[in-house]
Amino acid sequence: EAGVAQSPRYKIIEKRQSVAFWCNPISGHATLYWYQQILGQGPKLLIQFQNNGVVDDSQLPKDRFSAERLKGVDSTLKIQPAKLEDSAVYLCASSPGEGYEQYFGPGTRLTVT
Amino acid sequence: GIQVEQSPPDLILQEGANSTLRCNFSDSVNNLQWFHQNPWGQLINLFYIPSGTKQNGRLSATTVATERYSLLYISSSQTTDSGVYFCAGFPGGATNKLIFGTGTLLAVQP
């Protein structure tokens, strides 16, 4: 069974530029999550989708971050414009449903200069 | 909100040694998971253990939900065990937001 796929693995951008990350969850998993992990901390949930609907985006900085999962499978997370404090690893995870075991992708390491 | 404390924060072992990592919750949690984050940043699932004890090779985990803690045992440690270990769980109640612990940084020396 293929795991969660993410791309790109690394990205370096200048502040005020935009960036997008892509995630493909495990086949059949209805729930998809985006997490932000700052160096030295545990992952923090940004947004949770159930199929193509948003369940929780309470910690998503909506003035600059957006995410979509239009067909209930793949998802993209966008940052526009980026700030220095957005430097982090962005992790995508999926699970069969809410409250079930979550599986994480390899992450995208973003550096904003 | 719920607090998840892990201990010890840092641990250095010689290869072959055993260790116990602890995860304490300030309130009840459901469906606790243990993860290993390797030096490349990948979060690897170790255990999904709402309660009881599970074993997988050199690793085992025990969750005592009524006392709000979980333990991860690593036996005969290897250098590949190095990395950060996180526990995470869903707070009891309506939310299904997975809350991560503070992490334990493990370094296994040859």
What would CATH call the architecture of chain B? Sandwich
Query: Which spans of chain B have pLDDT < 50 for at least 5 consecutive residues?
Result: none
Q: Helical element count of chain B?
A: 0
Instruction: Tell me which protein chains meet in the greatest interface and how many residues each side has.
Output: A-B, 23 and 22 residues
Distance between the termini of chain A: 37 Å
Architecture of chain A in CATH? Sandwich
Assess the beta-strand content of chain B as a share of residues: over 45%
The averaged pLDDT of chain A comes out at 94
* CATH C-level label of chain A: Mainly Beta
Give a short account of the largest sheet of chain A. Answer: 7 strands, mixed
* CATH level-3 fold name of chain B: Immunoglobulin-like
Average pLDDT rating of chain B: 92
Radius of gyration of chain B: 13 Å
N-to-C order of helices and strands of chain A: EEEEEEEEEEE
Got a strand count of chain B? 11
Shape of chain A: globular
Radius of gyration of chain A: 13 Å
- How many domains of chain A? 1
Walkthrough of the structure:
The complex is a heterodimer of chains A (113) and B (110). Chain A is mainly β and 113 residues long. Chain A has a single domain (5-100), classed as Immunoglobulins (Immunoglobulin-like, Sandwich). Chain A is 0% helix and 49% strand. Chain A contains no helices and eleven strands. In chain A, the strands form two sheets. In chain A, strands 2, 4, 5, 6, 9, 10 and 11 form a seven-stranded mixed β-sheet that branches. Chain B is mainly beta and 110 residues long. Chain B has a single domain (4-109), classed as Sandwich (Immunoglobulin-like), CATH 2.60.40.10. Helices cover 0% and strands 59% of the residues of chain B. Chain B has no helices and eleven strands. In chain B, strands 2, 4, 5, 9, 10 and 11 form a six-stranded mixed β-sheet that branches. In chain B, β6 and β7 (59-64) form a beta hairpin. The mean pLDDT of chain B is 92. The interface between A and B is medium-sized, with 23 and 22 residues.
